[in-house]
Design brief:
The protein is mainly α. The chain has helices at residues 4-29, 33-62. The two termini are 13 Å apart.
Length: 64
């Protein structure tokens, strides 16, 4: 169970980077700006908000 608290944040980082890459590719093509916004905000949410929350709450669960 403890290994799950280490794998989930790393997977969140990878998925976030993937969405940011998709967003940049969509911006490069210039076909759909709304899709670019969705990809970028999803990726940034995963990197900036969700991953630190997982690290904080995961470490507090491990100390119990």
């Amino acid at each position: 169970m403890a290994i799950l608290f280490f794998i989930l944040p790393i997977a969140s980082i990878l998925v976030g980077l993937y969405f940011i890459t998709l967003g940049l590719w969509e911006l490069r093509e210039g076909a759909n700006r709304n899709q670019y916004i969705k990809y970028m905000f999803t990726g940034l949410f995963l990197l900036v908000i969700l991953t630190p929350m997982m690290w904080l709450f995961g470490s507090s669960f491990l100390s119990m």
